[in-house]
Give the backbone structure.
Amino acid sequence: MEFNKSLKHYNTFNVNYLAHKYIPINSLSELKKLINNLTDKIFILGGGSNILLTKNIKIPCIHIKIKGIKIIKEKLDSIIIEVNSGENWHNFVMWCISNNFGGIENLALIPGKIGGAPIQNIGAYGVELKDVFIKCKGINKITGKIKEFDSDECNFKYRDSIFKNELKNQYIITSIFLKLTKNNHKFNIDYGVLKNKIKSDKLNLKKIANAVIKIRQSKLPDQKKIGNAGSFFKNPIVSKKHFENLSKKFKNIPSYFVNEKLVKIPAAWMIEQIGLKGYKEKDAGIHKNQPLVLVNYGNANGKDILKIAKKVRTKIKEEFKIELETEVTIY
């Protein structure tokens, strides 16, 4: 345990706030013991890649660092793996690829730890966690009891789950179970930019992952050099009627039909249309290459970055009559 610990190097925005009481947790038994002895509310820290801190953390900050990968069941064409919440997501993806386990290669280079994956239902380039997800284990913050949640119970939606809604701040994810392929992999390269980047002949897991990595590196700033949390906003989903009204004003508006009634519009395109691509106030700003990414160029604090986010949301609402939702959790 440490007191008044700086979290600057524990969040990818690199904003400098303090945890008044910082407690690293390296095992499930440590976590159970801690919860049984705590009387306060607690703040859970994982990879710090999907959060914007705007103040010091005055309640105990529990840093989940539980590691471990375990093969649960194996068949000729498939494998079920349990991976603990403190493992690095990208490292796990690359481990799977090195073992020829398929299904998450499109999710390479997504920052963060395993524990955050089901909360966010992480996704990229036509693939989401729910596509390979079987269940997860979580420990109740108050009772210390462990509960399993299958895919249906997690209520996965676009960058969303029950853990961001009905069960928000109630459970700590301790591990997830995924079903991956060993043979006859189903490659998913239909997503526009990925389809253009890779040729469909002689596909393999490594080739797809490498293409995804190159695309992400070309679009997104390196978190080690420029503080950011990847995509700050969700791509909004609107009614077909709303989209038709917008398309009268914006002739070249890009879109993806979710179903017969709903249409998804790229938030990055919208931010560019309102003239905020590359916008900067002091050390906080919007990335010049990817408008979905808010950045800390050096000494911005969380409130500086939040001010930029509010400016984007206000202008988008004025111009498009759409409420942008954040992917990033604001604390």
